[in-house]
Write a structure and sequence with these properties.
The chain is mainly beta. The protein contains three helices and nine strands. The strands form two sheets. Strands 1, 2, 4, 5, 6 and 8 form a six-stranded antiparallel β-sheet that branches. Strands 7-3-9 form a three-stranded antiparallel β-sheet, with no helix packed on it. The longest helix is centred in the N-terminal third of the chain and has 15 residues, at 10-24.
Length: 248
């Protein structure tokens, strides 16, 4: 035994302890091994896991490169159409905009007017009805539509002579027997009317359109002509007379 003791070395002791640990299990070794006694030499490469280290012991590695983009996936199925949303509330009324600039007045349009009668006779007045003469001031050069209505009656020197009635503008010398001569004036186109010798007076309406008259004052009259011989008497009472400016 003494001889065995003399030959027992530190190496013999460590080998004996190692054998004991191998046979006794890792739990025993963990209990009796001193701290920091296991070094790199005792650790097998790639045998340690992340759970074998405390938090913060392992440094974070550098971020690796971005991998290649994967292939486009297959198109998904179309979803069902959703229900229509509720109608929103009406917005408040906006502020009224400013009034625009007034445009330039346009050019006056063309003017046209005419009138006709059934007989379309040229009347040479033997008398113009002075009592019914009407003066009108035109604001501009224009044609004028003239309307006359009233009661008329007349007798001629020849009992069978018909009478011709018409409207005239700017007449003068209203009575044949008044110097310096017979009545004058321009017959208004379309205003003539042929009658017998109405007695008592009858209602008559005449219409006509003048030629272009200058701006200013103009006189309008009712004229009478007995087609056979001279006139004897004239009875006319104007009910109304109207004028419409047709333009220049």
């Amino acid at each position: 035994m003494a001889r065995l003791t003399r030959r027992f070395t530190y190496a013999n002791l460590m080998s004996t302890v190692a054998l004991f640990i191998a046979l006794g299990g890792a739990s025993y070794a963990a209990i009796i091994l001193p701290a920091n006694s296991v070094t790199t030499k005792q650790v097998k490469d790639r045998s340690l896991l992340s759970k074998d280290f405390k938090s913060g012991q392992l440094p974070r590695g550098a971020t690796g490169p971005i991998g290649p983009v994967g292939p486009t996936g297959a198109k998904g199925d179309t979803a069902a159409k959703g229900d229509a949303g509720a109608k929103g509330d009406a917005g408040s009324q906006g502020t009224q905009g400013i009034q625009g600039v007034q445009g330039v007045q346009g050019v006056a349009g063309p003017t046209w007017g005419t009138a006709t009668s059934r007989d379309s006779a040229n009347v040479t007045p033997q008398v113009l009805r002075t009592a019914d003469e009407q003066s009108v001031t035109l604001p501009q050069a224009a044609k004028v539509l003239v309307a006359w209505s009233g009661y008329v009656g007349a007798t001629c020197a020849s009992p069978g002579s018909p009478t011709e009635w018409a409207l005239f503008v700017d007449g003068a010398n209203h009575d044949l027997d008044t110097p310096p001569g017979p009545p004058t004036g321009t017959q208004i186109a379309g205003s003539d009317q042929q009658l017998g010798q109405p007695s008592p007076a009858i209602f008559m309406t005449l219409y006509g359109v003048t030629g272009t008259l200058s701006a200013g004052s103009h006189k309008f009259d009712l004229g009478l002509q007995c087609t056979s011989g001279d006139w004897a008497s004239m009875d006319a009472q104007k009910v109304h007379m109207a004028f419409t400016l047709l333009g220049s």
